[in-house]
Amino acid sequence: MNYAALFRATLPETALEIAALLVIVLDLGFLRKAATRTRIAVAALVGIAGCAAAIWAVYAAGLDGFYSADGKLLLLAGGWASVAQIAILVLTALTLLLLVDSEFTRNPGEYVAVVLMASAGGLIISAAQDLLVIFVGLELLSLGLYILTAFAKKSEKSAEAALKYYLFGGMSAAFLLFGFSYFYGLTGTTSLAGIQEAVFRSGPTPLFYVAWILVVAGLGFKVAAVPFHLWAPDTYEGAPAPAAAFVASVSKVASFTLLLTIFGGHLLISVPRNLNENELDRQFSRYMASWTHVIEVMLVIAVASMILGNLAALAQASVRRLLAYSAIAHAGYILLGVCQLPHPNPLPFSQWPIIGFESIGQSFMFHDTPVLYYIITYGLTTIGAFGVVGVVERATGSDKLDSFLGLNKRNPLLAAVLAVLFLSLAGIPPLVGFWAKFNLFAAVLAVGAGPIPFALVALAIAFSAVSLYYYLQVIKRAYVMPAADDSPIKAHPVTMTVLLLIAAAVVVLGCFPALLQNWIASFYA
């Protein structure tokens, strides 16, 4: 194994791990007796510096992935992997900035270190092209999320949420590992490309579908899709606000990027050209038929997530739980886009000029760009939403809907940020949430043919209208209904600045959507 190449490929993760160790050394070795605010500020700044160094490392890595000794790709560079890694690092830095005004922990060094290590797990997941590497990344991310959820040691809700999250997470990991083991048993390899080649040559078997069901169950938990969503409301409600923002954003980006990788894994197959055209077309048809059944299962999950997430959100009195069910609904929308990935090329297999990632990766850019655009903008907006909830919660002691009564008079800037972010989540133009949904639904209609894609998009639009109702319930309390307490709600200057920057980004990216689209496209050049 070329360890120099491995070091170059994992330089972003290495930067985060060094920053995590440095945070612990500074906090416990030099700042143990300093004021908590000082310790939080130093830990957050070091963590943000680590994220900045990791972003530089992603750009410096270029398109040099890491290959095993037998030539199988283990870590991808460029394309959706680099886009997701930079997004994860930016979102991680934003969640660290929200920590400045928090009071839930007296151990900021350990908290920031866990955040950075969990983020490193997300980076591994985004680039992984091998089952073992994927599982290592998932466990590193998941273990960090369990710890972060339980970090408010004096909160019973935090402990309960962490326990539920851990138990459900353990079961999902078991399902995922069983599915991976079946794939290995069927194909004799842990490489995604190797698995796809084996299935292409021999065709799917009943055990292949069993393995897929197990993998879908495991990944469905990670993205909080129905019926694997039961952990999300309690976790979003019980976790500290910065931790909940991290779970809702970074974890989502990493998990959906993994779905892109798995559903796009067939991009990497390389089939000998010594077969005649009829044999190639026959194998290709059989191969795509195996994907069709997987897609059908995923579409059922997507529809169930849209329906349950939006309808359950209508009944919530807690804004945190409302955001949790909203996240379930958004997972359904994103899954519609993910399910379009396996069949972008209508030509028979034998008519493809060259089979390989480098040659046809550009043709797939159209299909994964809307998904990347959606998860990045959703993650950004969600961090801002939890930032607002955290400020209101610290001032009022509650995250209930009535805690937002008269927010416009108590803190006009905070109310404006709330309105922008929640309207963006609802998909109202000209905010970025509108373009995220528009691009995703347009891609579904462009790829699919017949009444089913149209019906799915129509259903998604209808439930987006439903979501507008419960988002407006929060905005109504902030702007229309009178406050029971007129005392001003103050936010830390750093927190307020971060929230204003997020709101400004939501508006600017909504008015100029090509900015983000062109940035994503630059990684496919």
The CA-CA distance between the termini, in Å, is 29 Å
- How many H/I helices? 20
Choose one word for the global shape: globular
What integer is the average pLDDT?
86
Please give the domain count. Answer: 1
How many DSSP E strands?
2
Question: Sheet bearing the most strands, described?
Answer: 2 strands, antiparallel
Please give a structural write-up.
- The protein is mostly helical.
- It has one domain.
- Helix content is 74%, strand content 1%.
- The protein contains 20 helices and 2 strands.
- Helix 2 (11-29) runs antiparallel to helix 5 (108-127), helix 16 runs antiparallel to helix 18 (451-479) and helix 16 packs parallel to helix 19 (493-511).
- The longest helix has 40 residues, at 357-396.
Summarize, please:
It contains 20 helices and two strands.
Features:
single chain, 525 residues, mainly alpha, two-stranded antiparallel ribbon, 20 helices, 2 strands, 1% strand, globular
Strand and helix map with partners:
Layout: H1 3-9, H2 11-29, H3 36-61, E1 66-67, E2 73-75, H4 79-98, H5 108-127, H6 131-149, H7 156-187, H8 192-202, H9 206-222, H10 231-238, H11 241-263, H12 277-313, H13 319-338, H14 357-396, H15 407-410, H16 412-426, H17 432-447, H18 451-479, H19 493-511, H20 514-522
Helix pairs in contact: 2-3, 2-5, 3-4, 3-5, 4-5, 4-11, 4-14, 5-6, 5-11, 6-7, 6-11, 7-8, 7-9, 7-10, 8-12, 9-12, 10-11, 10-13, 11-13, 11-14, 12-13, 12-18, 13-14, 13-17, 13-18, 14-16, 14-17, 14-19, 14-20, 16-18, 16-19, 17-19
